[in-house]
Specification:
This protein is mainly β. The protein is built from one helix and 24 strands.
């Protein structure tokens, strides 16, 4: 048991994880005790066990699959192990690393294989150590090294062509990163307004904007709930309407169900031509704020993004998960991207 959670089909009864199929104190339901001399057999009290099951201290157990009586009566498997053919083994997708069942696709200390540890500023994604915040400078104006290469903002070649706000001749202006140096501030001069470029061209009190209905959702304290019900399976359409719109943040509730191994699957598609967006998944708001991602997808150019994250065995993965869609290049006042969320299913 971990924090009041039992891996199905076990149930939490009187503070412990039990099988209602063969526990004589909880036979068919919590607190339903079998009287003297009877056994709990497939959820019912009986004086004899069904053929193929062994009598183990009042329980009728399948020694091939019973985690409390694996291979022999009383031989209980650890919470992170399953009973398969009478042996306590790690669940599918997990490896035994020093006696601990480990997902080498995501484990920081066992990334890709046992005992291969990532650095402090890295996470393990798909069995490879990658920078905790991604493999490129996703925000060129925040003073943070986003890709662990010791180059910050405009110093990083990733930021070539990026823009940042400045004060123009009559209000909002923009300067462009060129050859690792911020250029001159380009401000308004009375011409027609261009939506979302950060410049007040027509000197009419600010740049034109056309935000979507999910705004404001620009940081981890503003993440919008995708739907009230747990485990959504839906898509939403949204847009980055301005060079000042760097991040879109969302959240959803996940309910760890009866199946192992449930997964969270995210997809980012319909990215407007010439634009480049990235996708991040976090286990809670604190992880979102510290940019400590569970998984990420940071393809280059105009390619779609996808995340496929699997739950751990023997723990509850219920909770509120956070998603960040990060704009690396491009913006549009009219063209939407599509975010697909499926999880925890």
């Amino acid at each position: 048991m971990v924090s009041g959670f039992c891996e199905p089909p076990l149930r939490l009864c009187a503070g412990g994880c039990v099988s209602l199929e063969n526990n004589p104190l909880h036979c068919g339901g919590c607190g339903q005790e079998c009287s003297g001399g009877s056994f709990c057999d497939q959820g019912s009290c009986s004086t004899v066990c069904t053929a193929g099951l062994a009598e183990c201290g009042g329980a009728c157990a399948d020694l091939d699959t019973d985690r409390a009586h694996c291979g022999s009566c009383g031989n209980a498997c650890a919470t992170d192990r399953m009973c398969v053919d009478g042996d306590c083994v790690c669940a599918p997708g997990m490896q035994d690393c020093g006696g601990q069942c480990t997902d080498t696709e995501t484990a920081i200390r066992h990334c890709g294989q046992c005992n291969l540890a990532c650095e402090n500023d890295e996470i393990c994604g798909e069995g490879s150590c990658i920078c905790r915040t991604g493999n490129r400078e996703t925000n060129c104006t925040d003073g943070v090294d986003d890709d662990c290469d010791d180059l910050v903002d405009c110093e990083d070649p990733d930021c070539e062509g990026a823009t940042r706000r400045c004060n123009g001749a009559c209000g909002a202006g923009a300067e462009t990163c060129t050859s690792a140096v911020w250029g001159e501030c380009v401000g308004g001069s009375g011409e027609a307004e261009i939506c979302g470029d950060g410049i007040d061209q027509d000197c009419m009190d600010g740049d034109e904007r056309n935000p979507d209905t999910w705004e404001p959702n620009d940081d981890c304290t503003q993440c919008r709930l995708i739907q009230p019900d747990a485990d959504p399976n839906r898509f939403i359409d949204a847009r980055f309407d301005s060079v000042d719109d760097q991040v879109d943040c969302y959240r959803f509730v996940a309910d760890d169900g009866v199946s192992y191994r449930e997964r969270i699957r995210l997809g980012l598609s319909n990215i407007p031509q010439g634009h480049d967006y990235d996708l991040y998944l976090y286990e809670d708001q604190a992880a979102c704020q510290s940019q400590n991602a569970l998984a990420l997808s940071v393809n280059t150019d105009n390619r779609d993004e996808a995340i496929d994250w699997g739950e751990a065995f023997g723990t509850s993965d219920s909770g509120t998960y956070f998603i960040r869609v990060v704009r690396f290049a491009g913006h549009s006042c009219t063209e939407d991207y599509r975010l697909t969320v499926d999880g925890l299913n």
